[in-house]
Amino acid sequence: MLIERAAAPLLDLIPALEPHLDARTPCTEYTVRGLVNHLLFWAPSLTGGATKVIVVPPDATEAELDLTTGDCLASLTDAVTTTVKAWSDPAAWTGMTHMGSPMELPASQVGGMIAGEFLVHGWDLARAAGRDLTVEEEVAEALLEELAKTAELGRQMNIFAPEVAVPADAPALHRVLGLTGRDPQWS
């Protein structure tokens, strides 16, 4: 499944993040800790999308809640694993679903967005830790196709930054990063 394959590099990376929690990330509004908090904040909604259950985020904003107390990296591993498991059911990819709001979207589109979230934020976290993220070319190609469908909407919603020019013959991961407003050469 796409989400499982997109999440695998992130899951492999999580244990190495401990010494880097205060590092900057290519996702400019977040440090590593902030990005972990972001992923933990939205995890219930991402999982709920698989079961077609609207999981409304807490009344507090993501910035107002600190979900990184305790062993936040173990919590992140659990959250990502739970989301992957929920989306492993083929029924999760059918029909319409929600992602933290009453607005319905095609489940396959939501699944693609979640896979992109894991891949791109996995790369953000890897770069902040001074590492590369190894992603299967086939997975990156599939996500490039998926994210291209919603990139303009993502920019309108300030989810994606303006596109960064990347050569057409660059690896698919670099093209995904450029599409989402990241410089693949960020260090």
TrEMBL record:
One Pfam family hit: MDMPI_N
**Mycothiol-dependent maleylpyruvate isomerase metal-binding domain span:** 6-126
| Name of the protein this chain belongs to | TIGR03086 family metal-binding protein
InterPro entries xref list: CHP03086, DinB/YfiT-like, Maleyloyr_isom, MDMPI_metal-binding
